[in-house]
Amino acid sequence: MASVCGSSLALMDAGVPLKAPVAGIAMGLVKDEDGYAVLTDILGDEDHLGDMDFKVAGSEEGVTALQMDIKIEGINEEIMETALQQAHDARIGILAQMNAVISQSRTDVSENAPSMATIKIDPDKIRDVIGKGGATIRKICEDTGASIDLDDDGTVRIYAEDKAAAKKAIDTVLAITAEAEIGKLYKGKVVRIADFGAFVNIMPGTDGMVHISQIVQERVNNVRDFLNEGDDVIVKVLDIDNRNRVKLSIKEITEEEKAAFAAAEEDVAS
Amino acid sequence: MDETVVLCTVVAKKDVNPGQPFVPLSVHYQEKTYAVGKIPGGFFKREGRPTEKETLTSRLIDRPIRPLFPKGFMNEVQVICTVLSTDRNHDPDIAAMLGTSAALSISGVPFNGPIGAARVGFNAEQGYFLNPTVEELTTSELDMVVAGTENAVLMVESEAQELLEDEMLGAVLFGHQEMQVAVNAIKELVAEAGKPRWEWQAPAENVALKTAMADAFEAKVGEAYRITDKMARQDALAALKDEAVEQVVAAEGQEAEGKFSKDDVKGAFAALEKRVVRSRVVKGEPRIDGRDNVTVRPLAIEVGVLPKTHGSAIFTRGETQAIAVATLGTLRDSQLIESLEGERKDRFMLHYNFPPYSVGEAGFMGGPKRREIGHGRLARRGIQAMLPSEDVFPYTIRVVSEITEFKRL
Fold first, then answer.
1. What is d(CA A196, CA B13) in angstroms, rounded to the nearest whole number?
2. First vs last Cα of chain A: how many Å apart?
3. Do residues A10 and B313 lie in contact, with contact meaning Cβ atoms separated by under 8 Å?
4. What's the pLDDT tens digit per position in A40-85?
5. Which pLDDT tens digit goes with each residue over B29-52?
6. Residue A195 falls in which region: left (phi positive, over 0), alpha (psi -120 to 50) or beta
7. B159 and A64 in contact by Cβ < 8 A?
8. Rg of chain A over CA atoms, in angstroms?
9. pLDDT by residue (tens digit) across B65-93?
10. Exposed (0-12), middle (13-18) or buried (19+): which is A124, by Cβ within 10 Å?
């Protein structure tokens, strides 16, 4: 029964939000011709001497477990009632002493505890998170050390060694599942150059295309005069067509927009 | 019961192994996967060592029948219950208990049964209900198994969602009342098919020895039990016991004839001790360690004692101490439980360890024993109802309770 008390305390110490603390007590009863006596908190071997032993665990509100072993006849309702009442009093007393040490579960789980988070994504995006043959999800898991469960309804459960790793994994998933917004500016990286323009990766898993006519105001003969693979560029989303192809532009960005974007970037950085 | 079939067998040895101090009863409850039309998993495709459920049910059957063997009956008895068929919606434990009761009752072995057994459920709308199905238990605030004879309740094992003492007691009485149907049915069976009773006589009490012991030592033992310090008391009692062996055996001078053997004297001394302690308790005298009847031993409580663990506590009550350690894991760490009812995931584990050093012994270290599994389950029952739901706290939780000290006497 010490295990019940100890477990309740350890769980609260671990930040498990128990509905209420629980204590346990072992009781005994001896009955002979002269009468009976109920013993609170029996020692290990007092129960071999007794005629009934019972163990009760519970919260302040009520009983959560009751175990009884009775060896004789004649333990009637009245005796049991007395015994249970005496166990109740003892339990309340123990709970008070436990509460003096820790009365509420710690609000946060230990720093060492694995962190776990649940986020909800658009179910249509699940395959983006998984990637080709699971490549994307595997990469997230490798990079962050987290493991990820996906449900069909878009529930994503992220388990990680600690909080930082969980956050990193969440951010990555959110980035993958984020939708490009028309009119918004993104910082991207040029991934491929074609004759007709440049492909820019604006979010993990999302590439857009800057058409050759959208690079600068002047006419461009060769994309490579302005952009090369690996360049960082700021682009604006012009349109997303019904096949989810993202049209980007560099020349459409106004100075004001550029300044606002830079300021926002700095905010994030600081 | 319905589509549940449990084969319950009893074998009792006709002769006694001399020198056995306890009732050599063993109960084995085993579940066969064919009972639900499944082939066991694993490489060997056979049922392996007992599952936790089997161990716990074995204990459940053992507890109410053990006190019903007459005092002094020391013949080896083995009960084996085999679940042959089950409908998945009923726990076969009640059927196994009733079957064991019936088998013992018709066997002719000295047994003061029969017992009945019942599972009791409870909720505010329905009140108490009898033998709920696995499904019905999900809406029950109580899962209680009661066993008893016609006249007395013998065993209660239960788990509840913060019910009041009165509600618990009501359930015990309800269960006891309802099980009488089974008790009567078994009685009818005995009348019809019972084998002749063994002609067994309880060994005559050695009155001469008892009187001799009481005359010489009752007062002294009484004195010794007033020593509240455990070590000093144990020393005093051990000394008295040696004295008793020496005096009584020598004084009578009949050891050669085997009248008062050393074992007899030791046994009589233990009986005397028991009598002394019991009579003191009923008279309301202080207990072995000096407490009165309602006082809990002094508590010492500490939390957060182990730096790298997720949660820890040391709980000390008198000379009993438990170190409890909580570990959080992800839902993937949950335990897969395979049972006849099907597979399920369990996200709460409570493991109880009772190492030999806790009682000052050097003993065998092996896997968890029946007792440890039983105590762990009881502690788990105590905590279970207070755990947050998976939605609120989506972690797998494991608590290990290491008993570091345990007071026997």
1. 96
2. 53
3. yes
4. 998 766 667 788 889 999 999 999 999 999 988 878 888 889 999 9
5. 999 999 999 888 888 888 888 899
6. alpha
7. yes
8. 33
9. 999 998 888 889 999 999 999 988 889 99
10. exposed
Chain A positions touching B328 (Cβ under 8 A) are 14, 16, 109-110, 113-114
Distance from CA of A79 to the nearest CA of B (A): 11
Dist CA A45 CA B402 (whole Å): 20
Q: Counting Cβ atoms within 10 Å, is residue B10 exposed (0-12), middle (13-18) or buried (19+)?
A: buried
A17/B392 touch (CB, cutoff 8 Å), yes or no = yes
- Flag whether pLDDT at B279 surpasses 90: no
Residues B141-168 have a mean pLDDT of 94
Q: What is the pLDDT of residues B188-233, one digit of tens each?
A: 999 998 888 888 777 776 777 777 777 777 777 777 777 767 777 7
Q: What does the pLDDT average to over B10-15?
A: 88
Contact A3, B403 (CB under 8 A): yes
Residues of chain A above pLDDT 90, percent = 23
What is the Cα–Cα distance from A165 to A200, expressed in whole angstroms?
28
Q: How far is CA A190 from the centre of its chain?
A: 35
Calculate how close chain A gets to B93, using CA atoms only, in Å: 16
CB contact under 8 A, A64 and B154: no
Eight-class DSSP state of A178: P
Q: Tell me which chain B residue has its CA closest to the CA of residue A11.
A: B326
Backbone angles phi, psi at B48, to 5 degrees: -95, -145
What ipTM did this prediction achieve?
0.89
**Residue closest to A32 by CA, chosen among A46, A17, A52:** A52
DSSP B262-300: HHHHHHHHHHHHHHHHHHHHHTT---TTS--TTPPPPEE
Question: Is the CB of A89 less than 8 angstroms away from the CB of B294?
Answer: yes
State the Cα–Cα distance between residues B401 and B209, nearest whole angstrom: 45
pLDDT value at residue A45: 60
Tell me the backbone φ, ψ of residue A164, rounded to 5 degrees. -60, -45
Residue from the list A10, A41, A54 with its beta carbon closest to the beta carbon of B313: A10
Pair B176, B87: CB distance under 8 Å: no
8 Å CB contact of B388 and A69? no
Residue A159 in tokens? 């388990």
Q: Which residue has the tokens 């002269």?
A: A34
CB A75 within 8 A of CB A53: no
Query: Residue B256's pLDDT is what?
Result: 46
With a cut of 60, say whether residue B258 has pLDDT above it. Answer: no
Averaged pLDDT score across all residues of chain A:
85
Whole-number percent of chain A with pLDDT over 70: 96
Neighbours of A242 (CB within 10 A): 5
Checking if the pLDDT of B116 tops 80, the result is: yes
Chain A residues touching B276 at Cβ < 8 A: none
| Residues of B in Cβ contact (< 8 Å) with A89 | 294
For CA atoms B149, B183, B102, B338, give the dihedral sign: negative
Identity of residue A65? A
The pLDDT value recorded for residue A124 is 78
C-alpha span between B43 and A130 (Å, rounded): 33
Q: Which residues of A touch B394 (CB under 8 A)?
A: 116, 118, 157
